[in-house]
Queue: 2 jobs
Job 1
Amino acid sequence: MIEVKKTQKKKKYSHGLFLNPYTESSSTSAMRIFPPVGLEYIATSSKDYMEKITVLDLRQEKELSDTNNLVDFIRQEEIDFIGVSLTWDRQFDEICDLLNKIPKEIPLIVGGYKATECAVELLDRCETVDIVVRGEGEVTIKEILSDVPLKDILGISYRENGELIHTGFRPFIDAEDLVPPDRSLRRYKYLLSLNGVGVANLSFDSVLTARGCPFNCKFCTFNLNPLGQKRKYSERSIKSVVDEIENTTAGVILFGDDEVFANKKRSEQICDEIIARKLNKRFIAQTRIDIAKHPQLLDKMVKAGFKALLIGIESPHDWVLEQFNKGFNSNDIREAFKVLTKYPIYCHGYFIYGNIGETEEEMLRIPEFAKEIGVDGMTFNKLRIEKFSALKEIAEKTPGYHVTDRGELYSDMYSHAALKKIGRRMRYSFYTPGRFVKILRKNIFEVKFFRPSELILFVLTAPILILAALWGELKKGRLGDTLKRTFIKNT
Ligand code: B12
Ligand code: SF4
């Protein structure tokens, strides 16, 4: 807990709690290693209104993950304001139960991607929730905390005399006006762990250099807020971005932007500044294949410390790429990877399967294509069709296709279970024991992701990691199947 510096004037609230309500059990390793950046932006914006601020991330808090203990904590700490971030679909029911147990007298404000999507449902189900903040919340929270009448605050939903009131859209903030998260509010280091086992004492952080994305891929709702509004692309200044990086203590930083290299000239300048300041950090970024057309930028990225790229490849099929309006075809992907594989950067491909009209044979082609072009690692996600997805109309008009309330697409031919099964076949066709050796070799010898001391720790923990992975599969009741697919036959 951090005491906010006292000014002469007493602040409105004595102790504000900002809560990330997801617990460890529901989070995959990938979800756990990054801090809840959106919530931290909100806590930082609230500093002028609170004597003391506590940011709790329940993924890191075993005891407080028990709701009764959390409520005791709230009372003992005399919390008089609570802000909660709801980002992901998962655990929605459990989180609603938790919110309903928060003492009624404490103002409770909920925001985040999922909260925005489900503002009405949240207010219906949780009578303790006073206000749902829709969309980006930095300015909205300040207005709430400074007692602007609710009806005059844009971007909120609340109850009044038994009725739900939704105020108008909150205009998007210019990224340059954003104050980066105050990391001194953090109670934890975000460390790499796989299946609950810490790896190499590596700490992670997430930095946003811009908001929005200038592209318009049809399947993607990254660039739309959950109200269907396209987020206007807006950049922070190079100085503020690199200052933020310099002030983080984490060794590895993820650029959480939707597409961090949207402006190539600016990206080069960011790299130049990182090199000039000798920051000695490692970077991971989400990007498009277009980066391969900019060798000068790639050279600078390597010098600056870029170690891994998470690349939206989406599909090997030209008709899918066209349906997605991705702006490139399979040949462009092949050409891009001829360049990218020459760099000491780990390339992780994101693919989407279960597309409208895609056959099983076409889905199973994905891992083969990934191997051909030379991606190092890959993730497959089933196509999601969220409320404002540009693909919604096509899905609705295509006979035999259905979309669930949660945005999952399935068809009469391929149920969820069938798609899951195909996904598993794809995974084991790509992730063979040889692949894991290749991944390790590349990260250790080419990319040099690990420092020597980390490497020793990593080697020492490797047996525990393997046992933990096997234990995880055993608990899910699929150890036999996993071993069979890995070492004998993947069917
Ligand atoms: C970076 C990112 C990641 C990173 C890490 C994120 C992190 N730091 O934890 C990585 C790559 C690990 C990741 C993983 C996943 N992600 Co992701 N991710 C994003 C992305 C691109 C940016 C998130 C971000 O940092 N935004 C910037 C911050 C500032 O915005 P924000 O969090 O929304 O917060 C603002 C407002 O929401 C609001 N707000 C938030 N909290 C609160 C609280 C209060 C009190 C108030 C008032 C306001 C408020 O104000 C904030 C400031 O403006 C978003 C898309 C997007 N553009 O938002 C998807 C997104 C969050 N991810 C998503 C998903 C689905 C996932 C995965 C589950 C994908 C998967 N199938 O594997 C995984 C989860 C991990 C796993 N495998 O289990 C979805 C969530 C949708 C949903 N309904 O579930 C999103 C929205 C993308 C999408 N449209 O599909 N992700
Ligand atoms: S898929 Fe990537 S490039 Fe396309 S709109 Fe979404 S974030 Fe932008």
Job 2
Amino acid sequence: MQPYEHDDRGIRWVCDCSNPPVLLAIYDQSGRIEIKVRDRYYIAHDELQATCPRCGTRHVLNIRQSPAL
Ligand SMILES: [Zn+2]
């Protein structure tokens, strides 16, 4: 299973603990990461840590370590 899905806003960063997967954040190749917490949007760059609200798994996203496309 591919961990990411593309949509019109960027690449979906998800936890696959459930179906449908839990969306953690959306990011793009420029390094911009958009995360929604309750009703607010937060913007991070290059690296983000997030805890899945459903299973509690801690995830680390580091875009700089991702293969260049
Ligand atoms: Zn999860």
